Structure formats: C-alpha cells, structure tokens
C-alpha cells in the first residue's frame, strides 16, 4: 500500500529580488513527508531552511514548482492548506500584550471555533504545556521557555495534521529544550506529522525518523539518521559509527578543523 | 465574521492596554487649537467675521483639531509591532480572511477616534463653541472624524506593510501636515489666494474639513456633509482594498 504523504514539494524555487539584484534562496527542492513522521530539515545558516518552510506554510509565495501540504495545494488553495497545518516559527511570534489564555482563544477563533469552544480548547492546551498558572498573565512577563511552549500550544489549537516547527529550541536552556522535545514526541504519538527544522544535530538525532539536509538552496542528503550514518561510514571507509554531526559536515562541505589562533583562550 | 470580531476585540484590548498612546492624540490637537486661536482670534472677531456665523474663531478651528487627532495612525503602529515581533506571520498562517485582519484593526481605530473626537468637542464646549447642527450634527461630526481616522490609519498601515519599519510608519503621520496646510485651515476656501485655493480644491481633506466645519457652524448643510462622507467612503474602500492586496502579496 502506498504511503500517504502529508507534505510533497516538487522543484520548489524561491527568488528574492531586491535593490542588490536577485537572490535564489531555494533552487529546486523536492520533499516527501509521510503521515506520522517526524521529519527533520537541517542545514547551515542561510541554506534555505526557513524559506522552504515559509513556502510550505503559505507565508512566502513560491517562485516556481509546487507544494501540497495536508492534501491542499499551497498556491491554489492556501486556506485549505492553512486549516491543515500548525506553525511555530523561529522567533516565537506572540502578542506580548495579551495573556496566554487570550492568545490561545484568539488563535482558536482564527480557525473558526466559537468563543466557548476556543476557551475550552485553550484550557486543554494550557494544561498540556503546563502554563495554567500563568494563563492570565500578560505574555510579556513569560520566560523564553514559557513563550516557546505557548507558541507550540497556539500551533495546536485546531488539531493540525502537520505541525511545522522552525528551530523550536533555539535559545532555550537545556531543561526547556528537553521539555519541548517531550512535547514534540507526545504530539507525534497522538498522530500529528511533525516537520522540524533545527541546527542542533543532537535534536534531529533524538527526534527525527527521517531527515533531509539542505545547503545552498538544494537538498544534499536525505534518509533516516541511521542510513545516512551507514552511507558515510561506507563511503569514507570509517572504522567507527559516525555521528550525525559528521554526516552534516560531510554533506555541507564544512570542516571542523580549527585554524590555529582562531579560538581564543580565556585566562583569569 | 468570527475572525473579524475576534481581531477587533483584540485591537480594542491593545488600545486600552497602552493608554499612554492616547495622550499625544488628545494633547497635541488641543495644543494646536489653543495656539492657532490665540494667534488669529483677534484678526477674526466674532461679530465682524461673517464666515464664523456668530460663533468665535475657536469654532472654526475645531475641525482642524479633530482631523489632527484622527491622523496619528495608532493602528499602524500596533501593526508594525506585530510585523517585527512575528505575530503578523502567525495570523497570516491561519485561514482567517485577509480583510478581517485589516478591518479588525481599523474598527478599533474607529472606536478610539469616536471617543477622542467626543472628548475634544466636549472640551471645546465651555469655550463658547456650540454644534449648530444639533445632536444629529454632533453624531455626524464624530463619525466623520472617525471615518478620517480609518482612512489615515489605512494609509499608515500600507506604509507598515510595505516597509516593515517602525520608523517609516511613524514618519507617515507627518504626511498629514502638508495635507492639513493645503486646506482652508485658517480661512474659508474663497478667501485663499488662487494657488492655495486650487491646491485646496484638489486636496480631499478639504472636503472633510468643510463637512466638519459646516456641522459646527451651520444647520445640517447636506451638500457639504455629503461631500465629506463621499471622500471618506471612496478613500476608505481604496485603503481597505490596498491593505488586503498588500497582505495577499506579502512575502
């Protein structure tokens, strides 16, 4: 039986034209994410990760190519795509003047829920992300970890088929990062497909069933973490199991060799 | 419609939670009213100035204060904060109609401006100013002023959407000053020099000002009132259309 795909992209291209000319941020990306996967999308800064996610989530127009998300064509029927996705972007995009509860109820109403349904759903989500005590406080007083959890909750108000998380743990302390990982796992177990971009390879290794590495606007590796490691081991004839860091460095042509004098010592 | 009501409610909460923003919106127009009247009232004494229709010069100047108060574009300032903070993307990723995103904010701006216009008129009343067109005229007066607030906020929201810059959006409020000074601000249009009269006649703000002024000085002069509302309607529809289009094309 064929796998049911929740994210499909074919030859996605994004060009930005500005005063300094045209930049091709994404240069022909093909992606397939099956229902129920936690799909990792990795790449160095400026590789095209966020631009790809923004195209898949209808936030940025596609220059050429096509994409279907949650069964809807993102260009032809963006509202249908929006109804099937939840989005938590790189910077937790929250309205700091509202309370956590107000924000969740508002988000629910954006997806067509009534005020009463929104209030009920907000309560469920506040419990899920452990923010009940802070629910009626303004968001401007929340810590970074609380904001991330609230952002995650706001992406789930309408029970999306696919959850897009763009670097969800950047800037978080280790404890908050582990909490977000637990949430991602729980969300996935409940049936939501997760599309995760991250720069933390350990995070990808821990969470993702499959991943793709993008560099210079093109996909340069794709597969399960295990398969990618085996591939590198065979190609380089390594006598040990390489880490995902090494897979990443190999795929993106980066090196971990430090140039003498580049790292400064600190003395008291 | 659910989205529209929810976004309007949020925008009203926003205004109420930043009361500091209201202070310049009330204080600066009243300051200009006092200064302008102080400088020119003796030139235009009530009894010897036919265009004042028996009232004092402050009554002639109140429309400028109302228009100025409606030209701060508070809704656009909040929008640019949403854009910079990332919340605007959060809204765009939902299926809520793009017109609800625009109209939600503009509705709150209209409500705020109704309150501010009422306050300015109430402050002016003890200084010998009356609304000659009565209670209906007073209602039309504050609605017309609020209508201009919607139009001008729509214009400033466009700047916010195009530039995504707080500084550029803020500077949009300054555009109002040339528009204001190219109106029959200090004297009626027929007393302006020919170049100024021509410029004022091409300036849509002139017709709103003349509509407001007629409501204070005259008894329901429907032609002038109608022209003011027509300008608001045309400019309002244009601004909403351009805002919705800017959000749809936003990358």
Outline the secondary-structure elements.
The complex is a heterodimer of chains A (268) and B (251).
Chain A: E1 5-18, E2 21-34, E3 38-42, H1 49-56, E4 64-69, E5 72-73, H2 78-84, E6 85-88, H3 100-110, H4 115-128, H5 144-154, E7 162-166, H6 174-189, E8 193-198, H7 201-207, E9 210-215, E10 218-223, H8 225-236, H9 244-252
Chain B: H1 2-17, H2 22-40, H3 57-69, H4 74-85, H5 87-92, H6 98-124, H7 134-163, H8 166-172, H9 176-181, H10 194-202, H11 204-217, H12 222-248
Q: Could you explain the architecture of this structure?
A:
- The complex is a heterodimer of chains A (268) and B (251).
- By secondary structure, chain A is α/β, with parallel strands linked by helices.
- In chain A, 35% of the residues lie in helices and 25% in strands.
- Chain A has 9 helices and 10 strands.
- Chain A has helices at 49-56, 78-84, 100-110, 115-128, 144-154, 174-189, 201-207, 225-236, 244-252, and strands at 5-18, 21-34, 38-42, 64-69, 72-73, 85-88, 162-166, 193-198, 210-215, 218-223.
- In chain A, strands 6-7-8-3-9-10 form a 6-stranded mixed beta sheet, with helices on both faces.
- The longest helix of chain A is centred in the last third of the chain and has 16 residues, at 174-189.
- Chain B is mainly alpha-helical and 251 residues long.
- In chain B, helix 4 runs antiparallel to helix 6 (98-124), helix 7 (134-163) runs antiparallel to helix 8 (166-172) and helix 7 packs antiparallel against helix 11 (204-217).
- Classes of the chains: A alpha/beta (268), B mainly alpha (251).
- Chains A and B meet through helix 2 and helix 3 of A and helix 1 and helix 5 of B.
């Amino acid at each position: 039986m064929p796998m049911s795909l929740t994210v499909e992209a074919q030859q996605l291209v994004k060009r930005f034209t500005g005063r300094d000319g045209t930049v091709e941020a994404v240069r022909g990306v093909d992606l397939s994410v099956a229902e129920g996967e936690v799909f990792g999308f990795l790449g160095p800064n400026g590789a095209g990760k966020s631009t790809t996610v923004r195209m898949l989530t209808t936030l940025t127009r596609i220059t050429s190519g096509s994409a279907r998300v949650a069964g809807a064509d993102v260009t032809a029927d963006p509202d249908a795509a929006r109804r099937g996705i939840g989005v938590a972007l790189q910077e937790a995009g929250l309205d700091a003047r509202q309370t956590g509860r107000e924000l969740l109820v508002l988000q629910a109403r954006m997806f067509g829920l009534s005020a009463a349904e929104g209030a009920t759903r907000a309560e469920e989500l506040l419990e899920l992300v452990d923010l009940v005590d802070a629910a009626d406080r303004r968001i401007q007083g929340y810590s970074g970890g609380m904001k991330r959890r609230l952002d995650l909750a706001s992406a789930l108000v309408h029970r999306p088929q696919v959850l897009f998380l763009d670097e969800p743990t950047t800037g978080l302390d280790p404890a908050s990062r582990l909490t977000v990982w637990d949430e991602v796992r729980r969300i996935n177990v409940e049936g939501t497909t997760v599309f995760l971009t991250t720069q933390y390879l350990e995070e990808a290794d821990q969470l993702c069933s499959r991943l793709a590495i993008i560099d210079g606007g093109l996909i340069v590796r794709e597969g399960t973490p295990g398969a990618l490691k085996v591939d590198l081991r065979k190609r380089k004839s390594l006598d040990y199991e390489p880490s995902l860091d090494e897979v990443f460095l190999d795929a993106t042509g980066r090196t971990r060799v430090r140039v003498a004098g580049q790292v400064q010592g600190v003395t008291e | 419609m659910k989205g529209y009501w929810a976004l309007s409610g949020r925008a009203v909460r926003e205004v109420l939670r930043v009361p500091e923003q209201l202070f310049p919106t009330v204080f600066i127009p009243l300051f200009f009213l006092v200064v302008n009247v102080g400088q020119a009232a003796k030139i235009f004494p009530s009894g010897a100035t036919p265009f004042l229709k028996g009232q004092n010069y402050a009554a002639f100047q109140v429309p400028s204060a109302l228009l100025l108060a409606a030209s701060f574009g508070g809704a656009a300032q909040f929008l640019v904060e949403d854009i910079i903070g990332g919340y605007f993307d959060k809204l765009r990723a939902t299926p809520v109609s793009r017109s609800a995103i625009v109209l939600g904010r503009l509705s709150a701006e209209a409500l705020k401006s109704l309150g501010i216009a009422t306050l300015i008129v109430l402050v002016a009343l003890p200084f010998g100013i009356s609304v000659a067109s009565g209670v209906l005229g007073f209602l039309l007066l504050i609605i017309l002023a609020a209508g201009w607030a919607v139009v001008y906020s729509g214009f400033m929201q466009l700047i916010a959407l195009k530039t995504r810059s707080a500084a550029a959006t803020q500077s949009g409020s300054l555009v109002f000053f040339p528009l204001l000074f190219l109106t029959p601000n200090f004297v009626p249009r027929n007393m302006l020099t020919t170049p100024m009269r021509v410029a004022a006649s091409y300036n849509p703000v002139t017709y709103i000002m003349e509509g407001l002024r007629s409501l204070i000085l005259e008894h329901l002069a429907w032609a002038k009132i109608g022209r003011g509302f027509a300008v608001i309607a045309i400019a309002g529809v244009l601004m909403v259309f351009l805002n919705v289009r800017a959000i749809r094309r936003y990358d």
